[in-house]
Amino acid sequence: MRTSIATVSLAGTLPEKLRAAAAAGFDAVEVFEPDLLACPLRPAQVRALAEDLGLGIALFQPFRDPDDVDAAVVARTRERLRRKAALTAELGCDLVLVCSAVHAGAVRDDDELAAQLAALADVAAGHGVRLAYEALAWGAHVADYRHGARVVALADHPGLGTCVDSFHVLSRGDDPDAIATLDKLFFCQVADAPLLGMDVLPWSRHHRLFPGQGGFDLARFQRAVTAAGYDGPVSLEVFNDLYRQSDPRRAAVDAMRSLRHLADLTVPGTLPAAPAPAGWAFVEVAASGPGAPAVADLLGALGLVRTGTHRRGDVDLWSAGEDVQVVVNHRATSERARLSSLGLRAPRPHLLAERARELLAPVVHRPVGPGEAEIPSLVAPDGTWVQFCGPAPDWRDDFVPTGLGPAGEPSLLAVDHVALPQPFAGFDSAGLFLTTVLGMEPGELVEVGAPDGLLRSRAYRSGDDTVRIALNVGPTSATLRGRPLAAGHVAFATDDVFATARRFAAAGGHVLAVPANYHDDLAARFGLEEAFCDALREHGLFYDRDDSGGELLHFFTRAVSREFFVEVLQRRGGYRGFGSAGTAVRLAAQREHPAG
């Protein structure tokens, strides 16, 4: 798959966009006219810069409103195209994107429209330039790619072909399979998008996403494009307000990652297999300075025991049985406790390197001493390390046993999931990393109204559902005020949440206080027995029930920092959710009881 990206998809000046695209490995770019108009470089200089960077210029765009019922406007349009075709040739490009007209004077007769487009193609051909006609989803007369292709066929000009854009096709609910029958497919643009119930124009201008971040079936679209015999570049045209405020180099990496993932979805096996995480090896909490004792007190109250100290010091291992392992790293530069690393069990961690490299996520290694386990790792977009622990050597051998053991049978059984806070502009990037590099499946986007604004959350699951990671992002206003909104946490599973809550409190732990109004509502909403509601209230438990009768009972600890707290939960009857119905109450309670 040859790759391209429209410069409108990236932030910065035109030279910055070109450098970002080249650094990410793109073959070509589409030059968006407003980027060129604002650039001090002349077209020939832009061409030279692109050539120096190893980039082709695949398309110049957009040429809008190509047709009109007014003859005077038609004449002006041909002159406008003549100038743009000359500019396109100066860029070293031979293709201009022509969008279907959206104005009131658009031609409504297909024969006349075809004639006007053919005349424009004649003008462009004088400069060695072709035209790719695109049906905009909001076009005045032509809004369907099949209609556009029929007009192109009527024009019967060798320099006029069709451009298909996944957004314009799929946002309307059109069947993409007929793309396979197109004879003159000159260009292909792709973009994903969330499935929103809004007018297509603002949806397109503000909410497009890179492939794999939205809800469109892009693999089906792309298979149809391939079946049509198209061998040109697959180009990303993504209008997104956040991307246009983000570091263009990072956005370009996400863009390339998404295209390579799309290629693998279209033709399975294009990429090496995902590393298939098969459970949690450990979670790591960075805690140094004054915040470290609070983390130790919290883990101890939960029944974990400090079972090991790292050979090189400053790192402790806390355990509760075989499946609950928490590494506390005191080497961290930040004094605020936070989740810093996720250790995943992987039967074949060596498969990680090749796939990660293809997806622009190079494998990294922490410095190790003699005899210590080398664990292949990745760094997620938010800076969290993701480490892949194979069956041998055992990473726990790096820790010198303390000789301490649990006082009784551990009440925590496993890591159920972790939640990672994301910067406002990094939410989609982190999700793309989990789906493409780790092969995890995304869940539905959940939005929760909270005291400081809207919290967005999406959970990702491994294929066998043993690894669950929730990404959370809160409003920037909450971050500025230092609220714990969207703070990271680890959730441990237990088979008796009431007993675990009692033990935690008896050991000096602080359960997050839940408002009495919440429990009163539970009784009304679910028809719970009074004694059961009283027990939930007494232990500070949250409760949820799904449509199949599955139940979730869980409590939260008081936050030990703005970025870390713990959840303990018990799932009953196959409950698969995360208790989002109670999230607003939990956030309000955390605001009332902030971290010390």
Automatic annotation (TrEMBL):
Function: Catalyzes the conversion of 3-dehydroshikimate to protocatechuate (3,4-dihydroxybenzoate), a common intermediate of quinate and shikimate degradation pathways.
Catalytic reactions of this protein: 3-dehydroshikimate = 3,4-dihydroxybenzoate + H2O
GO BP: 3,4-dihydroxybenzoate biosynthetic process
InterPro entries: DSD, Glyas_Bleomycin-R_OHBP_Dase, Glyas_Fos-R_dOase_dom, IolE/XylAMocC-like, VOC_core, Xyl_isomerase-like_sf, Xyl_isomerase-like_TIM-brl
Keyword line: Dioxygenase, Lyase, Metal-binding, Oxidoreductase, Pyruvate
Family stated for the protein in its record: Belongs to the bacterial two-domain DSD family.
GO molecular function, one term: 3-dehydroshikimate dehydratase activity
Residue ranges constituting the VOC domain according to the UniProt record: 414-558
Protein's recorded name: 3-dehydroshikimate dehydratase
Enzyme class: lyase
Cofactor(s) recorded in Swiss-Prot or TrEMBL: a divalent metal cation
Binding of a divalent metal cation, residues: 134, 165, 189, 237
Pathway stated in the Swiss-Prot or TrEMBL entry: Aromatic compound metabolism; 3,4-dihydroxybenzoate biosynthesis
EC number: 4.2.1.118
Domain of life: Bacteria
A Pfam family reported for this protein in Swiss-Prot or TrEMBL: Glyoxalase
Upper taxonomic lineage: Bacteria, Bacillati, Actinomycetota, Actinomycetes, Kineosporiales
